[in-house]
Amino acid sequence: MQTADFLIVGGGIAGVSAVARLAPYGRTILLEAEDGFGYHSSGRSATYYHFGIGKSVVRGMTAFSRAHFETVGANGTALSRPSSALFIAPPEMLAGLDALEAEMRPYSDGLERLDADAVRAVVPVLRCGGDGIVAAVLDRTARRLDSEALQQDYRAAIKREGGRSIAGARVIAIARDGAAWVATTAAGDRFAAPVLVNAAGAWCDGIARLAGVAPLGLQPLRRTIIVLDAPPGQEVRDWPFTKTAVDDFYMLPESGRLLACPVDEVPSEPTDAQPEEYDIALAAAKVEHYTSLAVRRIGHSWAGLRTFTHDRVPVAGFAPDADGFFWLAGQGGYGLQTAPAMSAIAEALITGGIWPAGLTDWGIAPAHLAPERLGVGAV
Ligand SMILES: Cc1cc2nc3c(=O)[nH]c(=O)nc-3n(C[C@H](O)[C@H](O)[C@H](O)COP(=O)(O)OP(=O)(O)OC[C@H]3O[C@@H](n4cnc5c(N)ncnc54)[C@H](O)[C@@H]3O)c2cc1C
Question: Which Gene3D superfamilies does the UniProt entry name for this protein (predicted)?
Fold first, then answer.
């Protein structure tokens, strides 16, 4: 039996960021089922930081996280770079654009309203005017995150503090032994600690069931991204992350090509998500609807799971029905951009430390993220 002070299940961004914050307080062991870290949702994201998503708690955590993303990682790589977000509206989405602008305004001092001509100047392929895009809001405070650099930076911090990260360690059983949680892996190895952090993404409810803890009713939703060639003769590198004001479509540049997403939310079991033909075709159809691009060839596509609570606000807090079992779950479509906040929250609640003043400034209190609000045992 290997013992620690903190046992963390899940080596996505939630798990590694939490361990990086906990490692200075004691011995940490991170268990990841796959052979590498960040294989599931954390490795399949669009890697954007923007305020066009989530409720006020999510936007507040996003704003809090900014300072971390503006730093340079352990290996000298920037964790993010400035990159605008453009929220576009055809006539039927104008009310949605007004509402979105009002919701973003407290968090961004870089908002600018654009008319159709200005939108065309920013992203020339967008269909503007008439029943096409008639207005947009440009947010100059958005950023492109480097998920690989983030993962590496957090894992370097864990290593510096003597924490252990073990890949290929799928937890298949969890039992209580006195004051400790004991996790057993598929290989038969056993790990014990008084605190178990459940950071298993889409599998969090399953981990709770293994431990005899009431699940929260988390719902994984599949989302698809396709990769397209850039239009001939166009330099797309500086195009913004472009998203409809009401959830329907987004597009962004990536290494000289374009990524496009039909903003699909298909309920799924926790699984190694794969793109479905229908969603790939839908993505292509939406590219042709919102832009002048003809989709002749889809270079590549992928899908990933975004896992939500009922109220679409993540969960960070000890389970009310099990001592030492800490939920770090339901990061939905914002797990990267909120990871610095979620991990700071985990640190404060697990170690009994001070609640970060920066979160209080954004009106965020522990109760907003507590599992109790979801009615434990209600599902
Ligand atoms: C298409 C797409 C676009 C997105 N775009 C953005 C974006 O632009 N910005 C943003 O902030 N977020 C975005 N997200 C959301 C973001 O990717 C997620 O919120 C985040 O990655 C969740 O991280 P996680 O660590 O909770 O989950 P995961 O990365 O899935 O990690 C959970 C880990 O737990 C492990 N695990 C599961 N069961 C066990 C077990 N029994 N034993 C050991 N380990 C186990 C899994 O193998 C997995 O590695 C996007 C997601 C998708 C799919």
Answer: D-Amino Acid Oxidase, subunit A, domain 2, FAD/NAD(P)-binding domain
At 379, the pLDDT band (50, 70, 90 cuts) reads very low
Task: Report the C-alpha gap between 123 and 125 in whole angstroms.
Answer: 6
**Does 249 sit in the ligand 1 pocket, CB within 6 Å?**
no
3-class DSSP state for residue 129? coil
Pair (292, 321) in one structural domain: no
Q: Which of 207, 206, 200, 180 is nearest to 191 (CA)?
A: 180
In order, the DSSP letters of 292-356 are S-----EEEEEEEEEEE-TTS--EEEE-TTSTTEEEEE--TT-TTTTHHHHHHHHHHHHHT-PPP
Asked whether residue 56 is assigned to any structural domain, the reply reads no
Distance 352 CA to ligand 1 centre (A): 26
Cα first-last separation, the chain: 34
Kindly state the average pLDDT of the residues 94-99. 98
* DSSP classification of residue 120: H
What's the pLDDT tens digit per position in 319-345? 999 999 999 999 999 999 999 999 999
CB 80 within 8 A of CB 70: yes
Q: How many domains does the chain have?
A: 2
**Would you say the CB of residue 44 lies under 6 angstroms from ligand 1?**
yes
What separation in Å is there between the alpha carbon of 214 and the centre of ligand 1?
21
Give yes or no: residues 135 and 223 share one domain.
yes
pLDDT digits (tens, 9 = 90+) for 304-314: 999 999 999 99
> Ligand 1 atom closest to Cα of 328?
26
Q: Tell me, yes or no, whether 232 and 291 share the same domain.
A: yes
Ligand 1: does its nearest atom lie under 6 Å from the Cβ of 223? Answer: yes
Domain of residue 23, residue span: 2-45+147-217+311-374
Contact indicator for 135, 113 with CB cutoff of 8 Å: yes
| 58 within a domain of the structure (yes/no) | no
Q: What percent of the chain has pLDDT over 70?
A: 99
